[in-house]
């Protein structure tokens, strides 16, 4: 665990921060790693595999408390950003202890017994599950956090998640909206430019993620109700052919990732 990508990413970020090399911070899930930050001055990844909106909010809040004030935050803006979830502190709990507002998190958690257990375990035995509980973007064996496994010569095996009711309510959950609005407010209060990015994914992944709700309704609802004029949105979700992905929602490395980076870099440098 000490050598895992989530820990290395954090260590690299704070190394750069100590050298005053942080102006643009990437937050959110593994989709953000499609962008090569060495192509943009003082841009640093601070996201993590499967990172949900409450984690991104607490990370940014922690940075501000430490006196680190980025000029821009780039947040992955996918179909699961505001999804309903249980926040029981049972996912890499040792890593998140310093970021969370423990009292607030305890009030919001659905399983307080599990929360207390994870809190104690993460405090007393931080690396107890280190050999088994990290499957991240770079070291996974073609495994994603969306319940699918893909080999080079196979199509994804997807676990169906179709709801019997209108699952748009689950995608736009009260908890997700709560932390999303707080993150937007935090950026606004600190004069941080917030950029939401729909990173490249395959058509198969996109269709599967929106199988029981309208993706157009999802994004339009967010735009009308939660996004102010100061929040910019960049959309690349259907910019690349499926053959250019290493799995259903991560671009291959090398040239194609550099192509995407230059596309996004050009858009970031254009005034909106």
Structure write-up:
The protein is α/β, with parallel strands linked by helices and 272 residues long. It has ten helices and nine strands. The strands form three sheets. It has a five-stranded parallel β-sheet, with helices on one face. The protein has a two-stranded antiparallel sheet with strand order 4-5. A two-stranded antiparallel sheet has the order 8-9. The longest helix has 16 residues, at 174-189. Residues 131-165 have low confidence and may be disordered.
Task: Name a few traits of the molecule.
single chain; 272 residues; alpha/beta; Rossmann fold; two-stranded antiparallel ribbon; 10 helices
List the helices and strands and how they pair.
Elements: H1 5-18, E1 24-27, E2 43-45, H2 53-65, E3 72-76, H3 93-96, H4 102-108, H5 112-124, E4 148-149, E5 157-158, H6 168-171, H7 174-189, E6 193-198, H8 203-209, H9 215-226, E7 231-235, E8 245-247, E9 250-251, H10 255-268
Parallel strand pairs: 1-2, 1-3, 3-6, 6-7
Antiparallel strand pairs: 4-5, 8-9
Helix pairs in contact: 2-7
Continuous helix count: 10
**Number of spatially distinct domains:** 1
- The coarse overall form would be globular
- Report mean pLDDT, rounded to a whole number: 82
Strands of the widest sheet, in order across it, are 2-1-3-6-7
Rg over CA atoms? 18 Å
CATH topology: Rossmann fold
Question: Major sheet: size, sense and barrel closure?
Answer: 5 strands, parallel
| Unreliable spans | 131-165
CATH architecture: 3-Layer(aba) Sandwich
**SSE order in H/E notation?**
HEEHEHHHEEHHEHHEEEH
Q: How many runs of DSSP E, i.e. beta strands? A: 9
Structural classification: alpha/beta
Strand content: 5-15%
């Amino acid at each position: 665990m000490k050598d895992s990508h989530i820990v290395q990413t954090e260590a690299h970020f704070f190394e750069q921060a100590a050298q005053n090399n942080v102006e643009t911070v990437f937050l959110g899930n593994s989709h953000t790693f499609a962008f090569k930050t060495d192509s943009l001055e003082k841009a640093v990844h601070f996201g993590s595999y499967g990172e949900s909106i409450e984690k991104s909010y607490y990370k940014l809040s922690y940075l501000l408390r430490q006196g680190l004030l980025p000029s821009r935050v780039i947040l992955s803006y996918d179909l699961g950003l505001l999804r309903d979830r249980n926040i029981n502190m049972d996912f890499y709990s040792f890593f998140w202890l310093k970021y969370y507002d423990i009292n607030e998190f305890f009030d919001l958690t659905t399983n307080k017994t599990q929360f207390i257990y994870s809190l104690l375990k993460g405090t007393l035995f931080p690396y107890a599950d280190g050999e088994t509980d990290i499957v991240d973007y770079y070291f996974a064996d073609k495994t994603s956090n969306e319940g699918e496994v893909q080999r080079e010569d196979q199509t994804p095996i997807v676990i169906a998640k179709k709801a019997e009711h209108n699952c748009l309510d689950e995608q736009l959950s009260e908890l997700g909206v709560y932390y999303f609005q707080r993150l937007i407010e935090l950026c606004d209060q600190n004069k941080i430019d917030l950029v939401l990015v729909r990173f490249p994914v395959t058509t198969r992944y996109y269709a599967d993620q929106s199988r029981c709700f309208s993706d157009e309704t999802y994004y339009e609802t967010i735009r009308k109700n939660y996004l102010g004029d100061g929040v910019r949105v960049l959309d690349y979700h259907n910019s690349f052919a499926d053959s250019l992905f290493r799995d259903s929602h991560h671009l291959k490395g090398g040239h194609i990732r550099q192509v995407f980076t230059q596309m996004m870099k050009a858009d970031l440098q254009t005034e909106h």
